[in-house]
């Protein structure tokens, strides 16, 4: 079963007049992971799609949705998958890829049949999904954590010590525009990105996970001098427009997946805004 919703682009001037519920309606993807379903949010920022698939008793199919106007989902798109649950399997045009916790898979445009399966119904896989338009076909590729490019940034003194696992990124996997990775905060650190940053040529989506019941992350967005915030629970995501900063602080340590698409593949193409210039 597949469900979806469409989010239209909102400009920075409109955001200045939004209240809490308006912000959440526009930028929070709050219910991505539901047992027995594939769920999507189709965003008009870079035509980026964020979703989740949680197969339990039976496999789930990757189905085209009406906004794509396509005979199958990956007709003109590429797909990134990261498993944040139990062991699972993705089958793409007859080739099976098994994904353990925090392992990733890239599927290029042209794959007609894709299914998601859990290897243990009592501990189902939880596949987090990002999709972007694609202009060329690149090979499918599984990326385990041992295959990732890992960056160690921050410090305990600034509460932002973290390991950035670059999984589906230029230099590890060939993609058209999609990039994804997984950041793990060291115990005691709570800031996921500091200084805050934005990149005018890409959108970005943060998906937060590993948060116990009762804990949360305050995600910051908006212009550097007109910041706003959204409180996020476990397995929820925030869509960041190209004009918006993004960073967040949690009530305890956690992990998050970042995914982005746009006109370039330069990971470091960003403008940084230290805490003393934010308002």
Automatic annotation (TrEMBL):
Pathway: Glycan metabolism; pectin degradation; 2-dehydro-3-deoxy-D-gluconate from pectin: step 4/5
CC cofactor: Zn(2+)
Annotated EC: 5.3.1.17
Catalytic activity: 5-dehydro-4-deoxy-D-glucuronate = 3-deoxy-D-glycero-2,5-hexodiulosonate
Chain sites annotated for binding Zn(2+): 197, 199, 204, 246
Gene3D superfamilies per record: Jelly Rolls (2.60.120.10), pectin degrading enzyme 5-keto 4- deoxyuronate isomerase, domain 1 (2.60.120.520)
Top class in the EC scheme: isomerase
One biological process term in Gene Ontology: D-glucuronate catabolic process
An example molecular function term from Gene Ontology annotations: zinc ion binding
Keywords per UniProt: Isomerase, Metal-binding, Zinc
Cofactor mode of binding and number, as noted: Binds 1 zinc ion per subunit.
A Pfam family hit: KduI
PANTHER family: 4-DEOXY-L-THREO-5-HEXOSULOSE-URONATE KETOL-ISOMERASE (PTHR38461)
Function of the protein: Catalyzes the isomerization of 5-dehydro-4-deoxy-D-glucuronate to 3-deoxy-D-glycero-2,5-hexodiulosonate.
Family: Belongs to the KduI family.
Protein name: 4-deoxy-L-threo-5-hexosulose-uronate ketol-isomerase
């Amino acid at each position: 079963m597949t469900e979806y919703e469409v989010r239209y682009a909102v400009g920075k001037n409109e955001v200045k007049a939004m209240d809490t519920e308006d912000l959440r309606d526009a930028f929070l993807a709050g219910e991505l992971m539901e047992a027995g379903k594939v769920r999507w949010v189709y965003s008009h920022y870079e035509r980026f799609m964020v979703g989740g698939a949680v197969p339990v008793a039976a496999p789930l199919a990757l189905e085209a949705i009406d906004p794509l106007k396509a005979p199958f989902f990956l007709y003109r798109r590429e797909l990134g998958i990261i498993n944040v649950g139990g062991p699972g399997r993705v089958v793409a045009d007859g080739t099976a890829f098994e994904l353990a916790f925090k392992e990733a898979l890239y599927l290029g445009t042209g794959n007609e049949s894709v299914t998601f399966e859990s290897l243990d119904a009592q501990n189902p896989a939880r596949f987090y999904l990002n999709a972007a338009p694609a202009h060329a076909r690149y090979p499918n590729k599984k990326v385990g954590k041992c295959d990732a490019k890992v960056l160690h940034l921050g410090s305990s003194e600034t509460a932002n010590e973290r390991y950035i696992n670059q999984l589906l990124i230029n230099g590890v996997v060939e993609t058209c525009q999609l990039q994804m990775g997984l950041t793990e905060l060291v115990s005691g650190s709570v800031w996921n990105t500091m200084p805050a940053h934005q990149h005018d040529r890409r959108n970005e989506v943060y998906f937060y996970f590993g948060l116990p019941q009762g804990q949360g992350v305050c995600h910051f967005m908006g212009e550097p001098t007109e910041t706003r915030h959204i409180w996020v629970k476990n397995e929820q995501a925030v869509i960041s427009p190209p004009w918006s900063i993004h960073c967040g602080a949690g009530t305890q340590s956690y992990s998050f997946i970042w995914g982005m698409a746009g006109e370039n593949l330069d990971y470091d193409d960003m403008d940084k805004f230290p805490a003393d210039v934010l308002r």
